[in-house]
């Protein structure tokens, strides 16, 4: 039995000024699954991902139409609290972007925003999140050192811990491993697989092997539109469209 | 024969190498000249300033801690009195007070320009601030003399001259410096910190106060110290409003003096080599050492900021 859809989107268009970056995308995301968004550079997959927590709001001139619903609530409705939305839908960016603070201050940042002051609560959340992000053992003795002193892969996992600390329902990842070496990438992938039971994960990736390794479902974007979406196995073994087949077999892209 | 030619060509310096060498020599000569000038200034000021202690046998501790300044007349102990404490306190007083008052205004103005009204800030406020930096200090002093001093006299009584007037004039003078360096520091905060903070559910103010300002702290501190260095060394404007009484200031609205104000008003009226003259050089030495200290602090902050 398929899980219920936590995010649904219908006929989403995104414009940057006059340019239509996303041309009517409809796709649903089932709970507790990893969905991979793949496609060539400039196809709009990152742009689409950023509409799901309304990060495009920060881009001047960006405009979104269509219906995107989180648990049945329209996230673009005028009454939506964007701050609240972003607590439910976390995001990990391409470049590891820890703040220039200590590891501890980074991880508990979101909780402090929400007004949590109790030291014991913060300590517990910090440990839990770092463990979930599989980096606790590496940093437990230097929680109060600057996060910028860590390697890129470690930084990215601290950033994941920072997102996990606020216990979002959905985690968006925008090419989280493209700036990392293969070993760090594998560690991040393993972490994502372990998180799948508790979170819904949507990941944009350039790396088709990564998509096939970790995702349950895959959506193939091309020029601002979805060509094909379905179970990852089906997309990779038995694509229905020629463009999908060409892309995953490396004939263009 | 042919081999010898090639050998000679290989051993001769190429044109490019010679030009390179000449360029290096010229730049070295330039930097050597600058270093020489700085060393000469230090040597000159130090030799004059230290003469107070070696030739005129003034006790260094007395110089720094005594409060009576009258190098031209003989005091009750049969020796001229050269206690520089009133000037030292005056200088540090106006400097720190001006910095304390200017900092919140500078941070507020910088945040307005960078985070709130970006377009307006870049188009109108930045040129205004650059203009303020360029206004000659005598103009600030004159405005202080004709506006600030009477205002203080009306509100608090007294003559109106004093540390408060000095603080006010210096506050206006260093505000543009501190603001523009704070703006630079905030601009230098990478935008991905802002995105990361927003994505975690931070409001704009939370992002600004918890991430942007915090990441900009080393740059802002550098700006404040720059402003303090300027305030500490400012002579003319301060001299015009502080009252120039070499006494320990008992409050902020009674006439006082700073190292610079005593120097500028006194240096032309003394004879080279006399105690009065040497004592003024000692004040200059303090100023020089302080500006050195400010420089070191700025470097230290810069280094700590870079490490993070």
UniProtKB/TrEMBL annotation, chain A:
SMART domains assigned: AAA (SM00382)
UniProt xrefs under SUPFAM superfamilies: P-loop containing nucleoside triphosphate hydrolases
Record GO terms (molecular function): ATP binding; ATP hydrolysis activity; phosphate transmembrane transporter activity
GO-annotated biological processes: phosphate ion transmembrane transport
Domain called ABC transporter: residue spans: 7-248
Superkingdom: Bacteria
Record keywords: ATP-binding, Nucleotide-binding, Phosphate transport, Transport
Xref: CDD domains: ABC_PstB_phosphate_transporter
GO cellular component terms attached to this protein's record: membrane
Protein name in UniProt: ABC-type phosphate transport system, ATPase component
Organism lineage string: Bacteria, Bacillati, Bacillota, Bacilli, Lactobacillales
């Amino acid at each position: 039995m398929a899980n219920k859809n936590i995010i649904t989107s219908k006929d989403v268009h995104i414009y940057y000024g006059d340019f239509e970056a996303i041309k009517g995308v409809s796709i649903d995301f089932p709970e507790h699954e990893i969905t991979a968004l793949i496609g060539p550079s400039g196809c709009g997959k990152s742009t689409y991902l950023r509409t799901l927590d309304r990060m495009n709001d920060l881009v001047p001139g960006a405009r979104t139409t269509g219906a995107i619903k989180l648990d049945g609530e329209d996230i673009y409705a005028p009454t939506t609290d964007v701050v609240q939305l972003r607590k439910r839908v976390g995001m990990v960016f391409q470049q590891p972007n820890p703040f220039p603070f200590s590891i501890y201050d980074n991880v508990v940042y979101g909780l402090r925003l929400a007004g949590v002051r109790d030291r014991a609560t913060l300590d517990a959340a910090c440990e839990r999140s770092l463990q979930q992000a599989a980096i606790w053992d590496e940093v437990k003795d230097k929680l109060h050192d600057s996060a910028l002193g860590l390697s890129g892969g470690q930084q990215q996992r601290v950033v994941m811990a920072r997102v996990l600390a606020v216990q979002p329902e959905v985690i968006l990842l925008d090419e989280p491993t493209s700036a990392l070496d293969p070993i760090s990438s594998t560690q991040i992938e393993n972490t994502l697989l372990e998180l799948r039971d508790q979170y819904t994960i949507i990941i944009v990736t350039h790396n088709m092997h990564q998509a096939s390794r970790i995702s349950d479902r895959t959506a193939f974007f091309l020029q601002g539109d979805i060509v094909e979406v379905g179970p990852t196995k089906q997309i990779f073994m038995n694509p229905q469209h020629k463009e999908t087949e060409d892309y995953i077999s490396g004939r263009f892209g | 024969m042919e081999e010898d030619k090639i050998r000679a060509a290989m051993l001769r310096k190429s044109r490019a190498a010679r030009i390179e060498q000449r360029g290096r020599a010229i730049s070295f000569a330039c930097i050597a000249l600058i270093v020489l000038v700085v060393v000469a200034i230090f040597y000159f000021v130090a030799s004059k300033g230290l003469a107070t202690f070696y030739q005129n046998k003034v006790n260094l501790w007395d110089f720094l801690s005594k409060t009576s300044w009258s190098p031209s007349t003989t005091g009750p102990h049969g020796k001229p009195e050269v206690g520089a404490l009133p000037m030292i306190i005056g200088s540090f007083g106006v400097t720190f007070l001006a910095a304390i008052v200017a900092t919140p205004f500078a941070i507020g103005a910088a945040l307005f320009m960078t985070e709130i009204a970006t377009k307006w800030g870049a188009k109108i406020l930045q040129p205004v601030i650059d203009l303020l930096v360029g206004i000659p200090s005598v103009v600030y002093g004159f405005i202080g003399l004709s506006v600030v001093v009477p205002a203080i006299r009306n509100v608090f009584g007294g003559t109106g001259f004093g540390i408060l007037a000095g603080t006010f004039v210096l506050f206006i003078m260093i505000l543009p410096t501190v603001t523009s360096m704070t703006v630079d520091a905030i601009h230098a905060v990478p935008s991905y910190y802002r995105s990361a903070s927003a994505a975690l559910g931070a409001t704009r103010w939370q992002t600004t106060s918890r991430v942007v300002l915090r990441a900009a702290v080393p740059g802002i501190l550098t700006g404040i110290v720059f402003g303090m260095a300027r305030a500490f060394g400012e002579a003319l404007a301060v001299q015009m409003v502080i009252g120039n009484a070499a006494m320990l200031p008992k409050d902020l609205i009674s006439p006082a003096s700073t190292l610079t104000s005593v120097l500028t008003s006194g240096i032309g009226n003394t004879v080279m080599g006399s105690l009065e003259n040497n004592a003024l050089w000692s004040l200059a030495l303090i100023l020089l050492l302080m500006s050195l200290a400010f420089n070191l602090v700025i470097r230290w902050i810069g280094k700590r900021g870079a490490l993070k």
